[in-house]
Specification:
The structure holds 2 protein chains of 2 kinds. By secondary structure, chain A is of the alpha+beta class. In chain A, the strands form 9 sheets. In chain A, strands 13, 14, 15, 20, 23, 24, 31, 34 and 35 form a 9-stranded mixed sheet that branches. Chain A has a 6-stranded mixed sheet with strand order 3-2-1-4-11-12. Chain B has 9 helices and 20 strands. Chain B has helices at 7-31, 35-38, 62-78, 165-172, 178-206, 208-231, 286-301, 340-351, 417-423, and strands spanning 43-49, 54-57, 89-92, 104-113, 116-126, 155-159, 162-163, 236-244, 254-263, 266-270, 315-318, 370-376, 382-387, 426-434, 448-455, 460-465, 486-490, 496-498, 502-507, 512-516. The radius of gyration of chain B is 23 Å and the shape is globular. Chain B folds into 2 domains: 7-224, no CATH class; 361-530, no CATH class. Chain B has a 7-stranded antiparallel sheet. A 5-stranded antiparallel sheet of chain B has the order 14-15-20-17-18, with helices on one face. Chain B has a 4-stranded mixed sheet with strand order 8-9-10-11. Classes of the chains: A alpha+beta, B alpha+beta.
């Protein structure tokens, strides 16, 4: 190791964010460059160059990417062959029989199966739900299925056998038979060892279809990186993963980008001792929010991307279709905003690329929050006249001034965001008003105070480096691997030995890449979460750090938690249903970065008239974020800017900068 | 627009009210004891104005929509407003009081502000048991309403001082699983309380007058949207009919007939010509008929119309007292909720075939395909598997029907085979497409499902409640019908029985039940003539 630098790189559709930290000196640098879809690796070099580093200077590079997400959404996926238990290959097409759209007869009610019937093959075998063999795996049918899959022209194969989560031996036997015949094999018992055959099958098939693409990208990265530099990728559940692990489990990248921002918000919450926080990341077309408890993002194990189920542990990010590009229109006497978006092309009217529809960004510009004279990120100029012209028809229809209409657009956009804040907190039994809002992303800090006020939140934190926050999440990430597995055990028949064996097998598998990366087994930390429920219920509660060797203690912990969550508990028999484990290398102490040294654009300091309410323009100073000293207090109204984002501090709000560069805002109330 | 509220405030308040209704559902799902509520989410939440007109709904379940929009209005006919007090929560489940069937229990809380009732919060939850002849309260051969379970007339279970223990205990003494039911009651109460808290904050923030003006505007806006949608339909008088397989008691097919009158921006749906009340539990209520009509109109012309009391103003739904859609209160109704409601939608769709064939789908699986297995597991625990079976979607003018799907009034998921095998004494031997079951046509109907269940224990009771076994899903514009629904029992000795759509039979170890659900109808004549 030579350079002593750690780098986090978050590659989105438009920009690459980079944050680098020197482990010896504590020096930190950050920058933003354009994504190069034609040559992603050149993009990484350019990002490093933007913070005056060569790849050789970097000991550990952690990379978050939206590549897998985009491949799924755009359906740029490899063709897959499926091998399933006899009688069950159609499960992929049957699904759960529910339709996607309640009132749209014209739209197909479910997504087409990712594997058509002619590439679905079956083998004779059967296990029961405890993993016991009902029908042994028939070698003749294995050979027939393997030959057929090989001949099908598929680029990858998914193997999904009934109850394989309880006993992987039949799937492993198929993997052996497939070895050397097809390069990419995904076993359901490895990708997603959980009950419910359709979700496991769809998840495994999706994972298989990403394998060639992700493997190709990872090969390129590994070939390009210097021998001395280690490479990690940012995992959807909020930790790091090795290229080797992701080659087998590429779905770990499905939420890589948003997860990094949420993880960074988690670090900030932990650093500041915030019990309940909500990350608030507003971009061009969507706003992502996620509940963070005790410094950790809530994890969701069941979600859909582009209509396909994707059952993997991932940060529980909720996306709302309201962002800077969301279009406002008048619909039967109500002003609505989104979900239609002007997107990046043509973009908001004020971008001057031919967009004519009024957007949230146009409203922000017209009200004076954004500075028309500054070039956003160096090359996007803003046209206030165009923004006004786009809003004018709406204003006229509502018999308002353009400024009043712009205020209205923001109120409506903020209302749909507060609705999402309600959902993610009520769902988990938390009073959202007790949370702190951690705002980042291009537009998050612009809306945060208004959203917090509308929802009843008292404090907003705009963290240091908020505009390259996902990259910060990468560089500050913990090296960790997680997986959830079905493990059924009833309280009356508790077998500590069996639970311990499963736990250990899982732990060893998760630890493997960390050990391979040179970490001693003794420095690894294991976190376990058990899903426990009353026998006969279908819904489990999650118990952290369960006493797996002491069923009486586990039972007590379960009843206590059940009482706390649902207001009652009984002495009925209970059962273990899932185990989730995270194996990690604890973060080194002093992980927080020093004061911001982001390469700044030109600083502007002058007073403008901004509009915050019906009282009309208010003299509002613009401050350069870089010059805020620790402990400095700013009272609203004020606009605080850095090269990439704008913080709006309306009248009645007060901001204080701390010595880490985080800005704490007491939202107050409109005077 | 009559009310003086600006478009921005209107949208902000509309969002806040919808958020309240959404959050009510989350509260029930978190707090309820019953898996039916906590996982399957068989529940609905709504806010109404002081007169019982729907203003916001939490989960958009087509079946519950009509019910929720009429429950409070009907409730107020029974319970005068001057009997209501702050802190009250009233429970009821009578089908004839804005209801559907007994297991769907509604909790209603009047929300007071400034000394007057301003709104009602309503929480509907499907209780896993409501008493009656069999566990699970699903009596396929019921011949009167009392066999179906406990009938709860509007009853004040909570006041500002807390629960009325005696009334609560009376109810709990008459349903199975008293602890779980008490959990359901508390969850529904908690949801209405959360709604009250949030509503009071909204009144505080905007002022009662502004909120009430916004509510009036929400109704007007939905009405305007609905009228605009209706104007897009061609005026005329259209007649349609479809048939239930039987009267759930072995009788002949039972007609659902409608005369639809489209007149500019209003529409009348007259079901007077439908058959008399069924002997078995296929009856339903005028509220369910209205829900089905509303579904059809929304699906055909206005999928984005906000559900609100105002939507109903241009629609008139007429049912004949004594008919299957408006029976006397002594008639059984449990299956009508999910079977007859679908036939009402079919009849209206078919009436409109001459007017807008390009907007219609051919006949689909308009049945729940319901099988209930009740039996003891190997470990002695009693279990009931309540399983619905989707079928092939009807084809459309521009595409084939999808395989194995739920359509129209319901959207309940299947239970995974791996869950069935772990939780119930039943093995799933096969789940596959029922190939070739979709009707031929220029576009083919979707295929149904083929699923086989094998009993692992003796003495399992099987109750069926499915349709489209006798009267198959229809083809449109010359397309062929889909294959009818078929359920076959193969006894362990090899004997086969064709199971009727409304039956109670006993199964033993080794017996198999083979479900072949209906295929969708085809669209257009098969020989590609254009």
């Amino acid at each position: 190791m030579t350079g002593g630098w750690q780098a986090g790189i978050d590659m989105g559709g438009t920009f690459i964010d980079v944050v680098a930290r020197n482990t010896a000196s504590g020096e930190a640098r950050s920058a933003k460059v354009r994504t190069r879809t034609d040559d992603r690796i050149a993009g990484i070099r350019a990002a490093l160059a933007a913070v005056d580093l060569a790849w050789e200077d970097v000991d550990d590079l952690t990379h978050g990417t939206t590549m897998a997400t985009n491949a799924i959404v755009e359906e740029k996926l490899a063709e897959v062959a499926l091998i399933a238990t006899e009688g069950f290959a159609d499960t992929l097409e049957i699904g759960r029989q529910n339709r996607l759209h309640l009132y749209r007869l014209d739209l197909p009610p479910k997504v087409a199966p990712q594997v058509p019937a002619e590439r679905r093959f079956e083998v004779a075998e059967r296990l029961d739900h405890k993993g016991r063999t009902l029908t042994p795996l028939d070698p003749g049918s294995v050979e027939a299925a393997v030959s057929a899959a090989t001949a099908s022209g598929a680029g990858a194969v998914a193997v999904v056998l009934m109850h394989a989560y309880a006993n992987a031996s039949h799937e492993e036997a198929l993997a052996e038979a497939l070895a050397g015949r097809l390069p990419y094999v995904a076993l359901s018992s490895r990708v997603n060892p959980e009950a419910r055959e359709y979700e496991r099958m769809a998840t495994t098939v999706l994972s298989a279809s990403l394998m060639p693409l992700v493997a190709g990208y990872l090969d390129g990265l590994e070939a390009a990186k210097p021998e001395t530099s280690r490479l990690h990728l940012f995992h959807s559940a909020g930790g790091m993963a090795s290229p080797r692990a992701l080659r087998d489990l590429p779905l770990g990248l499905a939420l890589s980008g948003p997860a990094a921002g949420v993880a960074a918000a988690g670090h900030v919450a932990a650093e500041l001792g915030i019990g309940h926080a909500i990350s608030f990341d507003m971009g061009g077309t969507t706003t992502d929010v996620c509940l963070i408890t005790g410094g950790r993002a809530e994890i969701d194990n069941d979600r859909r991307i582009a209509g396909r189920p994707l059952r993997q542990a991932m940060v529980a990010v909720e996306s709302i279709g309201a962002g800077g590009g969301s279009i406002a229109h008048l619909d039967h006497g109500a002003l609505t905003v989104g979900p239609e978006s002007a997107g990046a092309d043509p973009g908001p009217a004020c971008y001057g690329n031919g967009g004519a529809a009024p957007t949230v960004t146009d409203a922000n510009l017209l009200l004076g929050y954004m500075d028309a004279d500054r070039l956003l990120g160096g090359d996007i100029g803003l046209d206030r006249t165009a923004a006004r012209a786009a809003i004018a028809p709406l204003a006229e229809a509502m018999a308002m001034s353009e400024e009043e209409a712009a205020l209205g657009i923001l109120r409506v956009a903020n209302a749909s965001m507060t609705r999402a804040l309600g959902r993610i907190t009520v769902e988990r039994g938390i009073d959202g008003r007790d949370c702190t809002l951690i705002a980042f992303g291009g537009a998050g800090p612009m809306h945060a105070v208004a959203v917090a006020r509308a929802f009843g939140i008292a404090t907003v934190v705009v963290p240091a480096r908020s505009s390259v926050f996902s990259a910060l999440g990468c560089v500050a990430a913990e090296k960790s691997y997680s997986q959830q597995q079905t493990m059924r055990m009833e309280s009356g028949e508790w077998d500590s030995g069996q639970v311990a064996a499963v736990h250990e097998t899982m732990r060893a598998r998760l630890a493997e890449p960390l050990v391979a990366a040179g970490h001693g087994a003794e420095e690894l930390k294991t976190r376990t979460v058990a899903g426990v429920r009353y026998s006969g219920q279908s819904y489990a509660v999650e118990i952290a750090g369960p006493a797996l060797d002491d069923p009486a203690a586990l039972g007590r912990a379960f009843r206590d938690l059940h009482e706390r969550l649902y207001g009652f508990a009984t002495d009925e028999p209970w059962e273990l249903v899932t185990l989730r484990q995270t194996v990690s290398v604890p973060r080194a102490a002093g992980g927080a970065l020093g004061p911001d040294q982001t390469k700044e654009g030109p600083a502007a300091r002058r007073a403008d008239g901004c509009l915050f309410g019906p009282e009309g323009p208010v003299e509002t100073p613009r401050l350069d974020r870089a010059v805020l000293a620790a402990g400095q207090q700013v009272d609203g109204p004020a606009i605080i800017e850095d090269a990439w984002s704008t913080i709006v501090l309306p009248p009645g709000a007060a901001l204080r900068a701390d010595d880490r560069g985080h800005l704490h805002i007491d939202v107050g109330s409109a005077p | 627009m009559t009310a003086a509220v600006d478009p921005v405030t209107l949208e902000v308040i509309r969002n806040a009210l919808t958020a309240i209704a959404e959050e009510m559902s989350l509260v029930v799902m978190r707090a309820a004891r019953s898996p039916l509520l906590r996982e399957a989410g068989d529940l609905s939440s709504a806010l109404t104005d002081a007169d019982g007109n729907l203003i916001a709904q939490g989960r958009d379940i087509p079946m519950h929509l009509g019910v929720m929009s009429l429950t409070v209005k009907e409730f107020l006919k029974r319970v005068r407003k001057d009997r209501l007090a702050p802190g009250d929560v009233w429970f009821l489940n009578l089908p004839e009081v804005g209801g559907n069937h007994l297991p769907d229990v509604k909790a209603i809380r009047p929300v007071f502000a400034d000394g007057a009732i301003r709104a009602f919060a309503v929480s509907l939850a499907h209780w896993a048991d409501i008493g009656g002849a069999v566990p699970g309260s699903y009596v396929a051969n019921a011949t009167d309403a009392w066999q179906e379970g406990l009938r709860i007339a509007p009853t004040r279970l909570f006041t500002a001082d807390g629960p009325d223990r005696e009334k609560l205990d009376l109810i709990l003494a008459n349903v199975r699983g008293a602890d779980e039911r008490e959990g359901d009651i508390l969850a529904q109460m908690a949801a209405t309380r959360a709604a009250e808290d949030r509503l009071l904050r909204v009144y505080d923030e905007h002022g009662i007058g502004v909120v009430e003006a916004a509510v009036a505007a929400i109704h007007d806006r939905a009405e305007a949207q609905m009228r605009e949608a209706l104007r897009a339909l061609p005026d005329g008088v259209y007649e349609g009919e479809d048939f239930l397989d039987d009267d759930a008691a072995g009788g002949p097919p039972l007609p659902i007939r409608v005369t639809v009158t489209l007149d500019s921006d209003r529409a009348v749906f007259d079901f007077t010509g439908s058959g008399d009340a069924a002997r078995g539990p296929l009856n339903t209520t005028p509220f369910i008929a209205a829900a089905s009509v509303f579904y059809v109109v929304k699906a055909l012309v206005g999928p984005d119309i906000q559900p609100s009391g105002g939507c109903y103003r241009p629609l008139e739904v007429i049912t004949r007292p004594g008919s299957v859609l408006n029976p006397s209160p002594d008639k059984p109704v449990v299956g009508g909720n999910h079977e007859t409601s679908q036939r009402v939608a079919d009849a209206v769709f078919r009436a409109l075939e001459p007017a807008l064939p390009e907007a219609l789908s051919a006949g689909g699986p308009t049945t729940s395909g319901l099988l209930l297995f009740g039996g003891r597991r190997e470990d002695g625990a009693w279990t009931t598997l309540y399983e619905t079976h989707g079928g092939g979607e009807g084809a459309r003018i521009d595409r084939d029907g999808a395989p194995v799907i739920r359509v129209h009034m319901s959207n309940v998921m299947n239970t995974p085979a791996e869950v069935i095998e772990a939780e119930y004494p039943i093995q799933v031997e096969r789940q596959a497409l029922r190939r070739g079951s979709g009707g031929a046509g220029r576009h083919r109907g979707g295929d149904g499902v083929h699923r086989e269940y094998r009993m692992r224990v003796d003495d399992v009771s099987l109750t069926s409640m499915f349709e489209r076994r006798v009267v198959p899903p229809y083809g449109l514009q010359g397309g062929e019908n889909g294959a009818p629904f078929r359920v076959t029992i193969v006894r362990s000795g090899g004997a086969e029985e064709d199971l009727s759509g409304k039956a109670n039979v006993r199964l033993d170890r080794g017996d198999r039940v083979i479900v072949e659900s209906c295929g969708g109808g085809g669209y257009g004549r098969p020989e590609t003539d254009d």
